[in-house]
Amino acid sequence: MDQSTVQFLGLPLLAWIPLLPLVGALFNLVLGRRVSKQTVHTVAIAAVAGSFGLAMFLVFGDLLSEFRAGRGGAGLSTVVYTWIEAGSFKAQLAFRLDTLSAVMVLIVTFVGMLIHIYSTGYMAHDPRYSAFFGYLNLFTGSMLILVLAANMPVMFIGWEGVGLCSFLLIGFWYENEAFASAGRKAFVVNRIGDFAFLLGMFLLFWATKNNSLDNGGSLDFAVLKSAAVGPAYVDVPFWGGERLAAAAAILLFIGACGKSAQLPLFVWLPDAMAGPTPVSALIHAATMVTAGVYMVCRLSFLYAASTTALIVVATVGLLTALAAAFMAFAQTDMKKVLAYSTVSQLGFMFVAAGTGNWTAAIFHLGTHAFFKACLFLGAGSVMHALEHEGSATPGDIMTMGGLRRRLPITHITFLISCLAIAGIFPLSGFFSKDEILGGAFAVHPEGWPVWYGKVLWAGLLIGALGTAFYMWRLYFLVFASEGRSEPAKQAHESPPSMTVPLIVLAVFATVIGWIGVPHFEHFELPGFMHALAHWLEPSVTHQWVGEHGLPGGPISGELSNGTTVVLLVVAFLVACAGIAGAWLFYGRGPSRTVDGWTQHGWFASVYRASKAKLWVDEAYDVAIVRPFKVVARGLFEIVDRFVVDTVAVNGSAFVIGIFGRVSRWFQNGNVQRYLVGVVIGGALVFVITDCRKKPTFDYTIVGNQIQLHADPGSGMAGAARIRWDLDGDGKQDKDPARPGELLDKRDVTVTGYDGPITMWVEDPVTRREVKVTRTISLNNVKLNEAKTWWPPPSAPAPSAGSAGGPAERPLDPEGAK
Amino acid sequence: MIRTPLVIVRAAGSAAAAIAALALVACAPPVTPAPCPPAVQAKVKDQLRTATSITCRTHRAEAATADIAVGDIDRVEALAAFPDGRTASVDITTDGKTIQSITYTHNDLVASSSKSLALMFWLFAFATVGGAVFVVSRRNLIAAVMGMVGSFLGIAAIYMMLYAQFLAIVQMLVYAGAIMVLFVFVVMILNRPEDEPVAPAGRAGQAIGGLAILYLVGRLIMMLVRVQPPNVDLANAAPLPTAQGHDWGTIGAVGTDLFGPGLFPFEAISVLLLVAVVGAIAIARPLRPGGDNAGDDNDPLAGDAPSHPEGGAA
Amino acid sequence: MSDLVWNIGYGHFLVLAAVLFLIGVGGVLFRRNALIILMSVELMLNAANVTLLAFSRMWGDLSAHTFALIVIAVAAAEASVGLAIVVAVFRGRRNVEVDRLTTLRH
Lengths: 817, 314, 106
Prior knowledge:
The complex is a heterotrimer.
Chain A: E1 7-8, E2 11-12, H1 13-31, H2 37-68, E3 76-86, E4 89-97, H3 99-122, H4 129-148, H5 152-170, H6 177-208, H7 221-225, H8 230-234, H9 244-259, H10 268-271, H11 277-286, H12 291-298, H13 300-303, H14 307-328, H15 334-354, H16 358-388, H17 403-406, H18 408-422, H19 428-441, H20 452-479, H21 486-490, H22 496-511, H23 531-536, E5 543-545, E6 551-554, H24 561-586, H25 592-597, H26 602-611, H27 616-666, H28 671-690, E7 696-702, E8 705-711, E9 721-725, E10 747-751, E11 755-762, E12 769-776
Antiparallel strand pairs in A: 1-2, 3-4, 5-6, 7-8, 8-10, 9-11, 11-12
Helix pairs in contact in A: 1-2, 1-4, 2-3, 2-4, 3-4, 3-11, 3-16, 3-22, 4-5, 5-6, 6-9, 9-12, 9-14, 11-16, 14-15, 14-20, 15-16, 15-19, 15-20, 16-18, 16-19, 16-22, 18-20, 18-22, 19-20, 19-24, 20-24
Chain B: H1 3-26, H2 38-47, E1 53-60, E2 73-81, E3 87-94, E4 99-106, H3 108-137, H4 141-161, H5 165-190, H6 203-226, H7 251-259, H8 263-284
Antiparallel strand pairs in B: 1-2, 2-3, 3-4
Chain C: H1 2-6, H2 10-30, H3 34-59, H4 63-93
Helix pairs in contact in C: 2-3, 3-4
């Protein structure tokens, strides 16, 4: 672990990579209104460019040397300060640049930079220009925090940050109620995923807190990955006999589902197209939605420890890929098609991750970033052009057409990106998609059904077919044939600030694939073609984790040369088939055949299902949103309106009002009224003290004697009449000293008896009798046979106490009348 | 009409008190000295505070009955002597450890004088309370004033019973003699001797206050009934003379205290009285002829200066 | 019970004083003529005096007599000034009913 020694303003350079965009955000958000637009976008672009430069410097400088020295997995790390130290939990604000995060950092900063430049043109006429750039910078900073995080809490900061910025940017034009709702929807759905993420984090902490090296739980990636910690989540059986790793991994994956728009939490992404197009390009194509994929790859050691989790990830990814492709067929809004395409491609990435093929996932992440960003920006360019001509629905592809002549640069870049996404050799999409397919075909860790990999492969192939088809439908409808509306016929090309990034992205979409060429046996390719795999190797796990954290077998199997070639060819053919199909139907614009099919028959229902996005949003609305609203309304009425407002707030005011009324009655300036208060107070003194002392008797035990002393209570001291029942027969006892009279002394002694003793006290004035009964036990003292009471017996008394004594013995002065 | 019975009662009370005092001095039964158990001594002394000597005769228990106390002592007879020669005999039963009962017996003469004193007390107490009730319940102001006078005379007699002779006289002189006269003057000045017995306004306050007062009266009387009177020989023993040799409560004793330790209050009260006199004059006289409190033509205090009728609202 | 009637103890005097006091309070509460109210106040003062002297007799402390004398003197002073005020008020208003003296109220 090499600490970057170069410091700027007290912080190492690594820490400045996320910090620069945050500073830019601060500037733009606080001061942006007062400076010119030039300053705003210069600051913003400079911040991101600065991050990019720093990243390039560090990656191709220090990190490269680390990699060459074999320490690429550890990479560069830096600790800014200790953020949380609570009990056994310690979390530092620490960043870590290993080979995996290096790839992400470069992608994020580069694509981000291009999109910032694009936005200067796209948002040129927007009144909240500075806010937009501020949010963009904030987003970039958060994403960099997420990517560079060295432990899970810091990653969560970034996670939340990008969620927040997503909300701010989707609902950027919040004056429109629908757009604001879309932003809210994104945030809420993300939140659900975040909750699962937190639970996963807690679970990991809980599992490792007894095992980690420094006697405390730590969510540091290095610590979690270390062998000493591994058994903590591998050997511990959790729910249902599964390893704890499975539970944690699945919880974290649910978080990733929210962020990366997988089933069932993908519903926010299509709505998120309400935001400006650069936002869609940056956040919803290239960076934020890939955070989930990144997280899974970052925690590859965790996922490799649980086959169940891998199966879950792969299955969900596959289903999402297919479902989203299905939904994309019938969409007529340009950005919506691209949105579903994103969801589908993310599904591909998760299938790759689920088959343990982390390299393929990251590879596809990277290539997808380029061509999808290019597609979105191209869409933005088209929409910008149409809007300029006065189109009311700039995104509706049914009103487009023939734009290949009107918008040449946009057309070329869009074409290249469509070729890439379809997976045509030699563009990048071909290689990355094939990497995924090959990995799925060959996967066989322990616990996998052997045939499942093939199923995944087949499904992905269908998905690839669909991808090619709907993307090229989009292309043909937008750029081919003739313009179908006035704005389409009049549109002209966008300014260079918008077209230059398009060109750059298209170039990358073309060439970047060549660093990820698959291996061929006995066939040495130039080293740079396998550069990505080698580069990522130190950062991710390639062994399945067996018992006690020891490596099991490799996750992915090896494919023979022949199989590899066959798979490549099959993928290519499928892509061509998709393009051909699209050309067949839509080559000359909207297809009358398809329109005919969609009118009746079974195809019509399929079409409707696709157009209605499989009614997922409606289902959520009925099942979750409406009951929730009912509950919320109920809680509002009961808790807020009634309990808080009426009872607590108004009620306490009411009570105080009553007190005030009473007090006011007393203080009206009338002296006679005051005297009433005095008299009431005097009476109260007697009332209160009247009730205190009740008649009772207390006792002391001497030997096996109980000496009782009667206390008539308050108000009756002198003249109360006492009666006793000292043998438990319920009748008042006679006085032995005065025959015929009942015993009425205040002090009596009982020998050799324990049990209920009752005393009656009669009030001399009211003649009311109060009865007091107490049960006294002598506690293991041997009872005398003879039961006697006052006075104590003379001869056979075995006990001490009141027996015997000379006349001079002082008398006890207590016990008056 | 009310005055006459009060005078008679007062005279009768004083006579009875005098006779009682004489009788008390006359008889003095002989005292047999003997040592007392200390607890008995303490207990009796506590009750008969002013007794000068307490002697005891103890009875030992007879062992025949099985239910007699095992101690040797079961009865103590104590004799308490008082400075004026009276005695009281105390009968104490005990079980050798605790005192079971104490009975005080006084000789007959003492008992009978105590009875007459009780009679006097009730008589004067009735007069006091009756006069007080008159004050608060009469419509006629003069009747109320007269009731007040009767109450004060009753209080003076009460003071006498408490051996506060000087204060009894002062009470009669100052209160009944001076303050009440002042009240009569003012009643005459106001020339409106009638008033409603109960003010019509503020019923709620009156109701609550009345209830509280009734409760308190009842409660206090109950307390008297239930609480053991601490000193039953009140009627019997005159307090000891003071150190200077004056009898307790006489003018000599009070004077010694007033001009000795109580000198400062005495001087202060003089100043207070001066202030009161000046203040009363200042407040009660008209400021100037025709001034704010000059009143109207009917004002008997207005004096001779011409006064024009003012609105006169204060 | 007869014990209470024939054996006069301190309690009797104290209760007498308390009852006297309460009657005085009743007078202040229920009457509206200023003179009657003043007389009720004098009653209360006297009740306090009786209590004072009863306790003095109980504890054998003679200084209470001085105190009682002072109380009498103060009562005299207060009565005179109070009556002067009544006269002054009467001058202006021609009546001395306290519930009509409300000008200072809000």
